[in-house]
Amino acid sequence: MEGRIVQVTLVVSNQARSLEFFTEKVGFEKKTDFRPPGGGVRWVTVGPKGQDLEIALWEVGSAVDPAQKAWSKQWEPARAPPLVLRVADCQKVYAELHARGVEFPQPPKEYPWGTAATFRDPDGNLFSFSQPPKEWSPG
Length: 139
Known about the structure:
Structural class: alpha/beta
Distance between the termini: 21 Å
Shape: elongated
């Protein structure tokens, strides 16, 4: 199969609060904000500036199609492993986000494969960012 991953879904308890967190504290841009005419589920995505990747902020209990209700009932915030972003300067990104009030269960830590830090959103979903070592060369 050929293709590109362009979206991941993040389960959140409050879409508006999550949108504010990711755009104002983390510095992502809002990519999509659609409200169907006459009501219905709001579709909101955010992502790193200059990238195609979108993170859909899916609010618990919402579903577009009635067939989704059954399998989406098991989705909960903070139940997935962290999403990982690659950055050029882990310490700098940590300092910026920490100054904006972002909570870090793991501040930057050095590993043989690079430096990484992990933060959590208001629902407890985890995000890591990592900086490869200078001598590392991606294949």
